[in-house]
Amino acid sequence: MPIIKSQFAEHFCGYLQSRNLNPLLLHGDAYAVLAQLPCDSVDCCMTSPPYWGKRQYADGGLGLEGTYQEFVATLLSIFGELKRVLKPGGSFWLNIGDTYANKSLVGIPWRVALGLIDQQGWTLRNDVIWHKVKGGPDNTTDRLRNVHENIFHFVKDAKDYYYDIDAIRSDPKKTKVVNGAIVSATGVTGVRYKRQIELATALSDAEKKNALAALEQMLQTVSAGEIADFRMIIRKQQRTTHSDVTGVSGRARELEEKGFYFLKYHPNGSKPGDVWEIIPEDTQNRTQHYAPYPEDICRIPILATCPPDGVVLDPFCGTGTTLLVAKQLDRQSVGIDISEEYLQISYQRTHSLL
User: Fold this and answer.
1) DSSP-derived 3-state class of residue 183
2) Which among 151, 164, 165 is positioned nearest to 46, based on CA atoms?
3) Partner of 71 for a Cys bridge, out of 56, 65, 136, 351, CB 3.0 to 4.6 A?
4) Ordered structural domains, the chain, with CATH
5) What is the pLDDT of residues 89-135, one digit of tens each?
6) What is the mean pLDDT of residues 315-336?
7) Torsion sign across C-alpha atoms 151, 157, 162, 164
8) What is d(CA 68, CA 81) in angstroms, rounded to the nearest whole number?
9) Alpha helices, DSSP H only, in 127-276?
């Protein structure tokens, strides 16, 4: 079975040159393996490390530390090596769960995130909430059920990193023409805005003329398919979308100077938000271990931040969910795990994919 146990750098470099879409599986401790890999060599990391203090893993490893401080410090040392291995334009997506100790949530996700920012200089671009929709059994009677985890998106270079927003947009609704009138994707015809402009007491005649002309041009832009939809903000008719203070908000300044502004919706659809409703992987009726970490949680990170010819890394690959999705999306991938049993499952899952 092609699970690599030594000479990691040699096998890694050969794999990158091969353009083979079957994942490369490296057996060993995440820190020790990463330390042998070359700098600036992978495009994207997507991982979910073991919880602290929740499971006894057959091969030992991360999560068995005596204190949460040790656990956080160990993670930071691993992610320091990861940062070295990641390309300058690379992204690091971290799914991490919390733990209770002495009746109190420890706050591990944010302890790790702040350590990465303050001690290692990572830039945090998003904190995504993974809403699991359904949680596991919870018999506690003195607190709420826990049905979410954090997913952090970090980058090495805040100003220059790969991000393909169009790859993750939702399918846009279409503009249509009804009785000769242009109707946007959400039913905007411009009639209401025209009426508000005409009756506005806060606009001068010149501002009304300019607003009506701009509205007509915007409707033509919608008709041409250049944008999918829009909203018009008119002085004293709608409130500004961010702040009324002109020194803080460019929108407020535009409203003061012109009497109106537009919010335009992208023609390729809307981009995802930072709350993802994804049901965990079903772990029932299986003979093999699968973590609750689901395939769908990997799709947005890989599509958005790994180029089509790029390489995805998971230093805690477990049973290979990240690697499986990377292969489905035609990316190369590298998985590291301390458990040979899990790597064997990863191999079976990823190599059975046609």
Assistant:
1) strand
2) 151
3) 65
4) 3-168+272-351 (3.40.50.150), 176-265 (no CATH)
5) 999 999 999 999 899 999 999 999 999 999 999 999 999 999 998 76
6) 96
7) positive
8) 20
9) 191-199, 205-223, 250-258
